[in-house]
From TrEMBL:
Topology within the bilayer: Multi-pass membrane protein
Segments crossing the lipid bilayer: 82-111, 162-182, 188-207, 273-294, 300-323
GO molecular function per UniProt: ATP binding
UniProt protein name: ABC transporter ATP-binding protein/permease
Keyword set includes Membrane: yes
Length: 633
C-alpha cells in the first residue's frame, strides 16, 4: 500500500513532506512538554538548577523576578525565575503545538481530498478504456464500490491517519530517546513491557486486516446487488421479486456486518490490552522508581541492571510517569490506525486490481497511419471468436460488404449476430482470421479513428444526463444548433422535441427514462446522422417498439442508411426488403447468403424462418412468389 500511495501522491509529495516535517515539530513540542515539570520539581524539591541546553541566558534573564536569598550553593538561578522560565516554556510549546497542528491538519486534509479526487478520475477513465471483454465479466456495483467506497477508505487514511501514524511513531521514538538520555538503566526497566506490546500489536493488526478485507469484499457485494436490483426495478416488480432480492441483499449486508463486527471486536480487545500493559509499566515506575529515588545516593541493583540513584530525582520520576501516560495515546492511535490502514490496504489492492488491467489501446496500430475517414469496404475472413476460451461462438465467418451496401444478419437467437457485428469496432479481438476495412486490418487503425467511422444504433438506446441537444451532439460537440435541428428533422424527432418545455434545452433524466423507447431510438438516430460515420451497425433498432413507433423509426433509419455501409441485425424478417443482401447465421456459421427474394424462395434456413414467423399470423400468408410478404420490394 505504501508503494501505491507513493505512486499516486506524485506532484503532492512536497505537501506530504511539509506535513511530515511539521509532525516532527509537533512531536518535539509534545515530548518536551513534560520537561517544565521536571525543572520545577528539581528546583523546588531537590534544590538543584535545571541543566537545559541553550537556555542559560534566558534563565538569567528571568532571575531578575526572584530573590537570591536562601539559595543553596548548587543553585545559580532564583526560584521565581526558574518557575517563570518553566511556565513560559510550557506556554510556548503549547502555542507552537497548536499552530503546527492547524497547518498540519489542513495540509493533510488537502492531500487526502486531492488524492481521492485524482484517484477517482484516474480510475474512472481507466475503467472506461478497458475492453468490453473485461466489462462483461464484471459486476457494475463492484466497480462503483471501488470508485466511490474504496477510494474514500484511502482518502480517510491519508486525511486522518497518516499524520497520526507518523506522530505516533515519532512520539514513541522521541519519548524513548529523552528517557534514555535521562536514565537509560531505569528506562530499560520501565520498558520491560514493550516486547509484549509489540507482539500484541503485530497479532491484532493481522487479525483486523483479515476481517477488514472480507468486510470490504462484502461491501462490494452489497453495492453490486443494490445496483443490479435497482437497474432492473421493472422486471423485479413485474415478477414480484422484491422479497427474493431483499433476502439476497440482506445476506450480503449480514456478511459485511459480520466481518466489520469481527474487526471491531478485535479492536475492542486490543485497546484494553494496551491499557493493561501501560498500567503495568506505570506500576514499575511508581514502586521501583520511588524506592530508587528515596535512596538519594549510590546505586540500586536490580538483577543484571544497576541503576545510579543520583540520576533518579522526583522530577525525573514525574517525567517518566508523564511519558508513560503519553505512550498510551500514540499506542492507541496506532491501534486505531491498524483498522484504518487495513481497510485502506484492502481498498488499494482492489483499486490496483483494476488499474493493472491493460487498456484497449494496447492493440496500437502496427503499420502506417491510415486515413481517418474510411470508405466502408468491409471484409470478414475466417473469423473465429468466443467469450469463453473453451467455447467458440463464431466458427470461421466469411463476409464481404462492399462500400455503400446494406447487409442484414439474421439467425436464431444466440447464433452470433451481435458478436459478429461487435468485432468490427474491436469491442472484442478475434481468435483467428482477419477483419479489414478498405483492405486494412482493423487493428491497424488507431482505435479512436476506427470507432469514429462506425455509428451504432442498439436495441435500446440510452440517453445521457444533459439536454436533448447535448445528447444529439454527443459524437460531435462542435455541431451548430442548425445542424443538430437538421439531424433531428431527418430522424423524425424534431416535432417531439419542439413540443417539450425548453425544446432542445429540455433536460434528459435518468438515462432517458423520461422519453419513450421510440423517442430514445430516434434521438440516437439523430445522433448517428450528425456523426455521419460511413459505417453503420443497427442492432435490432425496432425490436421493442409498437407498430407506430417502429414506422417512425424505420422512416428515420431510411435517411440514416443512405450512402453508408450498413450491417443490420433484425429478427423481423419482414422488414428486410430494403437491404441489398442477407446473411443467415446458424450456430456461428454463415448458412446461406443472398438477396431477400433469392432466400425467400430458396427453400433454405431463411425461408423456413420466414414461414415460422408467419405461422401465427392472423391471416395466412403464402410464400413462393415475390411480393407476398409485407415490406418486400
Ligand atoms: N458477454 C458474453 N459472455 C459470454 N457469452 C456470451 C456473451 N455474449 C454472448 N454470448 C454467447 O455468445 C453466443 C452468441 O451471442 P450473440 O449475442 O452474438 O447472439 P445473437 O445471435 O445476437 O442473439 P440474439 O438474437 O438473441 O441477440 C450466445 O451463445 C451467447 O450465450
Amino acid at each position: 500500500m505504501i508503494r501505491f500511495l507513493f505512486r499516486h501522491l506524485k506532484g503532492r509529495r512536497l505537501a506530504v513532506f511539509v506535513a511530515a516535517a511539521l509532525t516532527f515539530v509537533a512531536v518535539a513540542c509534545d515530548v518536551l512538554a513534560a520537561i517544565p515539570f521536571k525543572i520545577i520539581l528539581d528546583k523546588i524539591v531537590d534544590h538543584r538548577d535545571p541543566s537545559l541546553p541553550f537556555s542559560g541566558w534566558l534563565m538569567t534573564y528571568f532571575d531578575r523576578f526572584g530573590a537570591r536569598g536562601g539559595l543553596t550553593q548548587a543553585e545559580a538561578h532564583t526560584r521565581l525565575g526558574v518557575v517563570l522560565f518553566a511556565g513560559v516554556m510550557f506556554l510556548a510549546l503549547g502555542v507552537i503545538s497548536a499552530v503546527v497542528a492547524y497547518v498540519q491538519l489542513s495540509v493533510a486534509a488537502f492531500v487526502g481530498q486531492d488524492l481521492g479526487a485524482r484517484l477517482r478520475k484516474h480510475l474512472f477513465a481507466h475503467v472506461e478504456h478497458l475492453s468490453l471483454d473485461w466489462h462483461v465479466r464484471q459486476q457494475v456495483g463492484e466497480i462503483v464500490q471501488r470508485i466511490s467506497g474504496n477510494i474514500t477508505d484511502i482518502e480517510k487514511l491519508v486525511t486522518d491517519g497518516l499524520v497520526d501514524l507518523l506522530s505516533g511513531v515519532l512520539t514513541l521514538a522521541g519519548i524513548l530517546t529523552v528517557m534514555l538520555v535521562i536514565n537509560w538503566q531505569f528506562t530499560l526497566l520501565s520498558m520491560c513491557i514493550v516486547p509484549l506490546l509489540f507482539v500484541t500489536v503485530l497479532i491484532y493488526t493481522r487479525w483486523v486486516k483479515r476481517a477488514s478485507k472480507e468486510a470490504a469484499r462484502a461491501a462490494g457485494g452489497v453495492a453490486r446487488v443494490a445496483s443490479a436490483s435497482i437497474t432492473a426495478i421493472v422486471e423485479l416488480k413485474a415478477f414480484t421479486l422484491e422479497r427474493w432480492t431483499a433476502r439476497v441483499f440482506g445476506e450480503h449486508v449480514d456478511r459485511q456486518q459480520r466481518f466489520a463486527l469481527q474487526a471491531g471486536r478485535r479492536q475492542a480487545e486490543f485497546n484494553p490490552l494496551v491499557i493493561l500493559f501501560i498500567t503495568l509499566s506505570d506500576v514499575v515506575i511508581i514502586t521501583v522508581g520511588a524506592l530508587i529515588a528515596a535512596a538519594h545516593s549510590g546505586s540500586y541493583a536490580l538483577g543484571f541492571l544497576t541503576v545510579p540513584t543520583a540520576s533518579l530525582t522526583v522530577g525525573t520520576l514525574t517525567v517518566f510517569l508523564a511519558y508513560s501516560k503519553q505512550l498510551y495515546q500514540p499506542m492507541r492511535d496506532l491501534s486505531k490506525l491498524t483498522l484504518l490502514a487495513s481497510t485502506a490496504s484492502a481498498a488499494s489492492g482492489r483499486i490496483q486490481e483494476i488499474l493493472d488491467q491493460p487498456v484497449e489501446e494496447r492493440y496500437a496500430p502496427r503499420g502506417p497511419v491510415h486515413p481517418s475517414r474510411v470508405r466502408g469496404d468491409i471484409v470478414y475472413r475466417g473469423v473465429v471468436f468466443g467469450y469463453d476460451p473453451q467455447r467458440p461462438v463464431l466458427h470461421g465467418i466469411d463476409l464481404e460488404i462492399p462500400t455503400g451496401t446494406r447487409l442484414a444478419l439474421v439467425g436464431l437467437s444466440g447464433s452470433g449476430k451481435t458478436t459478429t457485428a461487435r468485432l468490427l469496432p474491436r469491442f472484442y479481438e478475434p481468435w483467428q482470421g482477419s477483419l479489414t476495412i478498405d483492405g486494412v486490418d482493423v487493428r491497424d487503425y488507431p482505435l479512436s479513428d476506427l470507432r469514429r467511422n462506425i455509428a451504432i444504433v442498439p436495441e435500446d438506446s440510452i440517453l445521457f444526463e444533459g439536454t436533448v441537444r447535448d445528447n444529439i451532439a454527443l459524437g460531435c460537440p462542435e455541431a451548430t444548433d442548425e445542424q443538430v435541428e437538421a439531424a433531428a428533422r431527418l430522424a423524425c424527432i424534431h416535432d417531439t422535441i419542439a413540443a417539450l418545455p425548453g425544446d432542445y434545452a429540455a433536460e434528459v433524466r435518468e438515462m432517458g427514462r423520461n422519453f419513450s423507447r421510440g423517442q430514445r431510438q430516434r434521438v440516437a438516430i439523430a445522433r448517428a446522422i450528425l456523426r455521419d460515420a460511413p459505417i453503420l451497425i443497427l442492432d435490432e433498432p425496432t425490436t421493442n417498439l409498437d407498430v407506430e413507433a417502429e414506422a417512425e423509426v424505420l422512416r428515420a433509419l431510411d435517411h440514416l442508411t443512405r450512402g453508408r455501409t450498413v450491417i443490420v441485425i433484425s429478427h423481423r424478417l419482414s422488414t428486410l426488403g430494403q437491404v441489398d443482401e442477407i446473411a443467415v447465421l446458424q450456430s456461428g456459421r454463415i448458412a446461406e447468403r443472398g438477396t431477400y427474394q433469392q432466400l425467400r424462395t430458396g427453400g433454405g434456413p431463411f425461408a423456413r424462418m420466414l414461414a415460422e414467423q408467419y405461422r401465427y399470423a392472423a391471416e395466412p400468408v403464402r410464400f413462393g412468389t415475390v411480393g407476398d410478404v409485407p415490406g418486400a420490394d
